[in-house]
Amino acid sequence: MTTDNTTGPFHEFADKSGDYYAKTFLKIQKNELSKWHINFSAALGSFIWASLRGNWLLFWIAFAVDLVTLVYFGAAYKFNNALSGVLEEVAKYTAAGNTAAASNKQLLIERYENWTSSSIMTAIIIFIIGRLFIGWLANRVYYRQYNTWRVDHTKRSGLKANRLVMMTVILAMIAPLMIYRSTQFAPYARTCVKQDRAIAKGKDVSFQAKFNCKIISDFPTLIWIDRPDIVEYPRAEDGTRYVKISEPTNKKPVTLHTYVSGSIENGVGYLTAFYGYFFDGIVKVLTGLLNALEAIFVGTPWPIMMGVLLAIAYYAAGTRITIFVGSSLGYLALFGFWQTAMETLTLVAAATCVSILIGLPLGIWVGKSKWGKAIVTPILDVMQTIPSFVYLLPAIAFFGIGVVPGILATVIFAMPPMVRLTSLGIQHVPESTKEAALAFGANPRQLLTKVELPLAMPSIMAGVNQVVMMSLSMVVVAALIGAGGMGFLVTDALARTDTGKGILAGVGIALLAMMIDRVVQKANIQ
Amino acid sequence: MSDQRRVVVEANNVWKIFGDRADEAMAEVQKSNISKAEVLERFECVVGVKDVSMSVREGEVFCIMGLSGSGKSTLVRHVNRLIEPTSGTIEINGTDVGGLNPEELRAMRADQIGMVFQNMALLPHRTVRDNIAFSLELRNVDAFRRAQAADAVIERVTLQGYGDRYPSELSGGMQQRVGLARALAADPEILLMDEPFSALDPLIRRGLQDEFLALSKEMNKTTLFITHDLDEAIRMGSRIAIMKDGEIVQTGTPEDIVTNPADEYVADFVQGISKLKLVFAHTVMVPVAKYEKENKKLPALKNCPQAGPEDDLDTLLTKVVDQDKPLVIVDDGKPVGVVTKDALLHAIRGET
Fold first, then answer.
1. pLDDT tens digits for B96-113?
2. Number of other residues whose CB lies within 10 A of the CB of residue A377
3. Residues B279-313: pLDDT tens digits?
4. Is the pTM of this model over 0.90?
5. Do B200 and B156 belong together in one domain?
6. Which one of A59, A73, A274, B44 has the largest count of C-beta atoms within 10 Å of its C-beta?
7. Strand pairing class (B247-252; B239-244)
8. How far apart are alpha carbons B95 and B109 in whole angstroms?
9. Structural domain span for residue B216
């Protein structure tokens, strides 16, 4: 053994069987620990060893291993139970001479037998591998614990029996319910609803059935609310709409979810019924923009359009990217995607225009005002976190199906980076440069146009690039609500499970995206 | 020696207190004259400038010297009202700056005041010429006259041939020339220099200092020059104001400051400064009569080394070296005083 000086702290830390840990820790320090070194007392003691030693990380791992093992055994018990139930039934059928019904059950019997034996196998494998893993992990994790203890001697060390109390509490809180759950088939939600009604009618239900419904099935819906009145907005004879409220025909109470979703729908209905002109106005403006862009992209004969696109690529991004753009356009044209690709470009252009028109001023506001930041930033956060598909629904609710709601959904999805990057650019204009401009007599407008916007330009252009790319990806999704273009080909192929067509259209979209991205990025750099 | 030149910039009892409750703090300060520490403790406000009065005359280079945090940059930003005083007034040619409306203020900033910044603060997306013409552009001067004016100043700061370059293509010293040119472009009467040469290396700084001195003399600009470097202040300033903790502790000519420091703080500063170029014969000489009373008779005038009363110690030193006769100070052909070697050595050590 080495001197006390090197192993002394090890002994002090490990307390019982200090010699063993002193030896192992020394090996770890000297990098001599064997790859396959296993602490057998840890492997055997598992979570009890870990909690005695106060290593709660290892405790949770070990506890999980044993719990999963038990859960698989519980499942085996559950399937075995089900199996004996089926066997009883089969015995009944055979006794009654109904061999057809008996052989029908054969498949079920086989399945339950399979599940039972595979559950037992899994349980055993997990147990053995898990315990070996714990034995392998124990000393390495324990050494880390030693290192934290070296820094702070109040941290857990040694071997203390009172930690078993904590362990027992955790065990008692988790293990029984988990194991019980594994031995039971969870009741269906409908069964539980029926059970609720039966209880309401005063029928007797066993405690176990009630327990199963409330605890091991879904979270019990606790709130039941009276059904709201039916609200409609019919037209009167003079053509104006009015609000008509009637009693619900069905008196059964509804869940919170149904109640609130109904109210939201009523609100949306009210807005479209009484403020329709507002939405119609938006539709008119956007349709105008779309028609103009469509005249450019779709109306221009393909030879001219192709030439123009190639010329733009050449001047903006150079020869190599022009070759790429050329071959991509060739792909689109040869596979018959030209018109649809141009439609998609129209949509992207329209969405980008609207995003920039709204996003740039908003970004400037956010960048310059504390209020703007406080109001807009959380809205942007929400806009970016909500999955893009969710935007489609309100768009349909307010604008129906078609291109305009598609573009609006796209704008909502694609605008946040424009706002963020614009405000970022404005905020990053050095204070000293702004001060200099003020010192030479700049007014607020000159400060913005001659100093802040030019200095923020790289950031703003990065925002535009983002907007273009996000518009393209969203325009494809917006095809679901009738926005048309390349996305429609994909959704159509999806609906018909037409793999070949779907892949061709998908490649087309990818090429379109790469084309735009490369050109815009290169143009930004130059 | 009273100065007859016109006062261009005048500050009267300027206070600047930073913080949300600055007005309350100001009222309390005026009522019961509480200290900076008390203001901080009771109102959570910081006193940036404390009761500063100064007047800068036409053509003068007025140096404001102080360490960082002494409030010198804050003070100078009051002149063009980049910072509003909490109390007190600033007058430029008799006009109260605080009373100008936004449009008048912008006009004054563009036409009468040029400012140079420590970190240059040039616009990276504009060429040197467009940077220099920036103040003119803000006043909607047409492009042709702008370019003409810019080219004229480019020549003054010897940046010929760099007009169409971008600031990033220039060295630090050249960039600061652009900064200076930008300040001069609108031919303003007043220049505010906020530590303009601090970020440059010593050799280039020296060169720019000399060039600027020549320029300001030639163009007769009234300059407020901020620096944290006493050497620079002494080189540049016709007068120096020394700031400490937001207050001006002493104002005077470089010689005043070096020979008569107002308090310990200034004395500490001045200690390491070479007096050779700052102290003149008239302050160290002893009148002839007094010399003759205390010592023996003065030797014949033609055998003695001679100097004028406005010669500095450096000049005197070269004249007394390698000989033992006393130095006679001659004014209008008549001897007015005597400087002995001992007196000279004491003066160099700062013991007058």
1. 999 999 999 999 999 999
2. 15
3. 888 888 888 888 888 777 777 777 788 888 888 88
4. no
5. yes
6. A59
7. antiparallel
8. 13
9. 58-82+94-271
